[in-house]
């Protein structure tokens, strides 16, 4: 799988990103309008879009395609008449789908990354004088019955990351047993990350009913309180490294403009916005991160599942998951 993607050289980016944008800006295109499809959690500020317009002359229209999985599936269904010129947010769990269906003109370019893992609400457990889970194996124990919300791997990239993590942690002989135990322990499965985190999770602004949620190792940095402590904590024992990509869609109406936009996502101005706007890590090295990230948003030292052939096994694993969680 790794041969399918171009992980952009950081040194080259640092030296040539600005020059590349300037060169692209000089290219004549039939249109100065670019449509970019992104997943629902993507944040690209108006200020950044205005900067891009000033540099290139292109106006960007953003459309949202759902979670990364749903967005990728939508692009497959519309590939003969694409809904956009460029896409941002296809991740490594669904990139194989994009490649197999010839969605991308050229190569996918890595933009940011994060570690998908379970988070829990420290305050919820503290108030009840109950021990929080120490690892994902404990989520199937009786004391955590009905307390966990995850995302559907069929529609959610974070959900598919969790699926891959469980295969890696429990192995070929136990992962389906673990999924069945999760279901028997009344885990809730949502379509996407936003619903799970901002509606169902008790440790977010949504103040939901579930104190354990599938999210990211960086999520606790978003929940730092006035006392300087985070209300939440991530379980770092079983995180799956998620890398998000951008690319020009085949049959794009404004290919040149789409190429310029992908390069803009590698610029220092956009890369510097990622931590605070999307709580993900920039792919470009040397970008400053918020001070709280060192304590509350650590990069996982040993992510799991990197050796799995997700593209080859996706359909089988998704069918097995769906069979278990069918009702």
From TrEMBL:
Recorded GO CC terms: outer membrane-bounded periplasmic space
Alphabetical UniProt keywords: Signal
GO biological process: thiamine transport
A GO MF term: thiamine binding
Record bears the keyword Signal: yes
Keyword Chaperone: no
NCBIfam families on file: sfuA
Name listed for the protein in its UniProt record: Unannotated protein
Organism the protein comes from: freshwater metagenome
């Amino acid at each position: 799988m790794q041969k399918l993607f171009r992980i952009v050289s950081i040194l080259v980016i640092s030296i040539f990103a600005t020059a590349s944008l300037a060169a692209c800006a000089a290219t004549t295109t039939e249109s100065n309008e670019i449509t970019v499809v992104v997943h629902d959690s993507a944040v690209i500020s108006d200020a950044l879009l205005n900067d891009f317009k000033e540099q290139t002359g292109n106006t960007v229209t953003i459309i949202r395609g759902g979670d990364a999985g749903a967005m990728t599936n939508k692009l497959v269904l519309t590939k003969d008449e694409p809904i956009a010129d460029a896409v941002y947010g296809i991740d490594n769990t669904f990139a194989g789908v994009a490649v197999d269906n010839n969605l991308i003109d050229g190569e996918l370019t890595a933009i940011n990354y994060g570690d998908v893992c379970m988070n829990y609400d420290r305050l919820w457990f503290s108030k009840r004088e109950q021990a929080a889970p120490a690892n994902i194996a404990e989520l199937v124990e009786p004391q955590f019955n009905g307390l966990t919300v995850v995302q559907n791997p069929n529609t959610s990239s974070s959900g598919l990351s969790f699926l891959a993590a469980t295969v890696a942690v429990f192995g070929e002989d136990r992962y389906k047993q673990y999924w069945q135990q999760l279901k028997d322990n009344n885990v809730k499965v949502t379509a996407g990350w936003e619903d799970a985190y901002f509606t169902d999770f008790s440790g977010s602004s949504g103040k939901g009913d579930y104190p354990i949620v599938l999210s990211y190792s960086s999520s606790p940095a978003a929940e730092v309180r006035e006392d300087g402590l985070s209300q939440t904590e991530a379980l770092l024992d079983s995180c799956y490294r998620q890398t998000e990509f951008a690319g020009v869609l085949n049959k794009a109406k404004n290919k040149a403009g789409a190429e310029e936009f992908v390069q803009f996502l590698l610029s220092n101005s956009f890369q510097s916005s990622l931590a605070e706007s999307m709580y993900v890590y920039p792919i470009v090295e040397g970008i400053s991160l918020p001070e709280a990230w060192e304590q509350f948003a650590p990069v996982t030292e040993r992510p799991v599942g990197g050796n799995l052939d997700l593209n080859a096994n996706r359909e089988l694993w998704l069918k097995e998951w769906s069979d278990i969680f069918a009702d």
